[in-house]
Amino acid sequence: xxxxxxxxxxxxxxxxxxxxxxxxxxxxxxxxxxxxxxxxxxxxxxxxxxxxxxxxxxxxxxxxxxxxxxxxxxxxxxxxxxxxxxxxxxxxxxxxxxxxxxxxxx
Length: 106
Description:
106 residues; alpha+beta; 3-stranded antiparallel beta sheet; 3 strands
């Protein structure tokens, strides 16, 4: 691939990445822990939008368990968000014909 062609494709990718970032920000992903006792919702950019806790966990003696479940649910949702962005970025690069894994300056 010649340099000029690659730079043109990089410019296209940069423009489409802006659109992709907007789309990802609008997406919500859920993570859960404790067989669904704790659920968190994040945006595609990792912003925490909601936490749902089963009332059975709202006991003083369950405090540490609840904290651990919230952290686990958040980690699951964050991983889903990051995977979604990576998948969409790879698909976008493939659509415009750039080789997988290319590093571009954005």
